[in-house]
What does this fold into?
Amino acid sequence: MKKIAVIYHSGMGHTEKVAKEVVKGIADQKEVSVDLLTTEQAIEIMDDLESYTTLVFGSPTYMGGPSAQFKAFADATSVKWMKQKFKDKLAAGFTNSGGLAGDKYSTLMYLVTLASQHGMIWISLGQPAPLTKSGHGPDAQTINRVDASLGLMTQSDNAPPEQTPAPGDLKSAFLFGQRIAQITKQWNY
It folds into this structure.
């Protein structure tokens, strides 16, 4: 059975909520197992990360980039980078911010660069851009409502995680998890 780790940091609980939806999507698929790890937990078991086929990175977007706590995890992976221990593993990523754009693209680019530094293979979102007939923007139920392609982007209002992100964002996270699991099952590494 192939193993997937979802490694995330969440400051206020919104990114954790997204991470849990990604995990649900992965767990919905057969022939894979999934572990949800905070960045702190992942640092503690750094050597064990070598046993995973896929590493999924998640961070809120703060001030146009990943959180300092996620960056601490990324920096800790340098011991694996030196010997290319993550080379040819699969990687994917997601981010959440308060703004609809919120410079989330910068965070995803950071995650892609981290994966590329390690020689990993990136899994994109694989969800089409939202289309509307009315000419108005997509509503909160719409899948991929922020029109991402590189990875998953979600948005949270200034409210508790019990109320936000929007249902469409959470559905996008679930579908992204399913995609990650399906591609992981196909990966012969």
